[in-house]
Amino acid sequence: MIRPDATVTDAVRELVEHNIGALLVCEADPSGEVHLRGIFSERDLLHAHARLQGPASGKSSPPNKCPWMAATVAELMTTEVITVSPGDSVEQIMDLMTTKRIRHLPVLSEGRLVGIVSIGDIVKAQHAHLAAENRFMKDYIRG
Question: Is 82-143 CATH 3.10.580.10?
Answer without folding.
Answer: yes
